[in-house]
Amino acid sequence: MAVETTFSIIKPNAMKKNAIGAIINKFESNGLKIAAAKLVQLERSKAEEFYAEHKERPFFGELVDFMTSAPVMLMALEGENAIAKNREIMGATNPAEAAEGTIRKEFGDNVGENAVHGSDSAASAERELALFFEKREICNH
Ligand code: GTP
Ligand code: MG
Question: Which domains occur in the chain, in start order?
Fold first, then answer.
């Protein structure tokens, strides 16, 4: 295993639940460290670029509407095997199918409003981190 850095977003529905602390606690208690963080309300063009791989999907407009509807928290998470570990801590895309104790089980409302995003591969992590953070903004531990 190697130390990796992955990209995470706390989505608008979880932000509205005042769940930043609870979600970060899940990351930290599972060995991931916060290497960068910022609160922003995403521009529509940026959200569309971020989700470009889904632009032909029927839910694309709804997804972009949701992600730009309120502030989000963008983070770089660092740790051993961070990409897969973060996906495990998040749980299944659909909160109804997410395991007990996962973020999406506790804070997800439905498949769209599912509380968090996490990069799904090393290539995605690199692309997504570069979209939102300068290299110098990521403070590796
Ligand atoms: P992310 O970490 O957010 O990328 O989730 P994922 O990798 O588990 O799922 P995927 O990349 O397949 O889908 C990206 C996002 O699109 C999901 O997290 C959902 O927010 C959204 N999404 C997926 N399916 C649906 C759907 O049927 N309806 C709506 N409204 N949104 C969906
Ligand atoms: Mg995905």
Answer: 3-137 (3.30.70.141)
